[in-house]
Amino acid sequence: MDILGEAMIDYQTGHYTEDIMTYLSIHPQLEVVQDDLPLPYLFRPFNEMPKLEKKALKLCHGTVLDIGCGAGSHSLYLQKKGVSVTALDYSKGAIETCKTRGIVNCVRTDIMNFTGHRFDTLLLLMNGLGIAGTIEKLELLLHHLSSLLHPNAQILVDSSDIIYLFHSDEDGGHWIPAQEAYYGEVQFQMEYKGKQSTPFEWLYLDFNTLQTVANANNFSCELVSEGDHYDYLARITLK
Can you give the three-state secondary structure of the chain, one letter per residue? Predict the structure, then answer.
């Protein structure tokens, strides 16, 4: 079910009546975290983007692949700046929305099935590496992304450390229930106009873990900037 795509088409065509509800299952012992995703936020112009996204867009160079482009706000900004950008998303509705907004190069596919092209910048914003789902699959994703890179190319990605969602003690430490999986491996679900998506895996990464995984897979990973609340922008390059 293309929850995001349906919602974006509604907004684009003037049928915006409600936002997307999101449900984040962190651990069986903890309550589900419920939040809303305002549709206007997906269509935000550059001046309304978070500072980490603005920084990432300014660091883009050469040909750019916007992975998980959504409504195409990042691609649209780059295109208007004269950058050669390709907007990629698995959602049919997302790609229809991007085309309607005037983005020239659009591809509808799963990134793992996208081959035969190379870029100077791979852009994964709004916790773009979350599509990996797990640490194990992150390694597979990074390996695939390496096949899409020109020499001296870069991957720009933002993410969040969700440690703040766990109980903290007086010393500032956090209590994480015993589990085999990394605490940032979660189950995500969306709801829109009474329809619910199937729960899917999603990954939130603290920077140290991202850097460790990157280094173990022949990448260098540098912290570019930190946000206001456990979020950060990182730059990943091949060693």
Answer: CCHHHHHHHHHHCCCCCCCEEEEEECCCCCCCEEEEECHHHHCCCHHHCCHHHHHHHHHCCCCEEEECCCCCHHHHHHHHCCCCEEEEECCHHHHHHHHHCCCCEEEECCHHHCCCCCEEEEEECCCHHHHHCCHHHHHHHHHHHHCCEEEEEEEEEEEECHHHHCEECCCCCEECCCCCCCCCEEEEEEEECCEECCCEEEECCCHHHHHHHHHHCCEEEEEEEECCCCEEEEEEEEC
